[in-house]
Ferric uptake regulation protein
Amino acid sequence: MTYTAASLKAELNERGWRLTPQREEILRVFQNLPAGEHLSAEDLYNHLLSRNSPISLSTIYRTLKLMARMGLLRELDLAEDHKHYELNQPLKHHHHLICVSCSKTIEFKSDSVLKIGAKTSEKEGYHLLDCQLTIHGVCPTCQRSLV
């Protein structure tokens, strides 16, 4: 589902929450991110500050968690000590290959992973919301520097 401010407002209202200007601004940032870009809470905070849209870091953390629980954002562990987020686009499933040395991240598609996720979910009676695979390794550049 592609979220607009109106659809986000409707879903938030349905769950007993409201669409605040801060939530709308955070949604807008993620909608305008270039493909393949992921933001941490701190990245988002700095981005908003640079645009003269100061939102407290605690509000950002709460909003990111809420939007991830709603399925609007994907929460990612990208080999760092904090989470990153990206817009969840169900029709654009992709996975991540991450270098544990330099944190270089490559996105890739795999229908096999999605099929396994769908089959396993169905077998266990789950409704599949998202299926993501994260592979951790050492990139060729970092391998050369280890030798």
Remarks:
- The chain has a mean pLDDT of 84.
- The beta strands are 73-77, 83-87, 95-99, 105-108, 134-137.
- The radius of gyration is 17 Å.
- The domain at 1-91 is CATH 1.10.10.10 (Arc Repressor Mutant, subunit A).
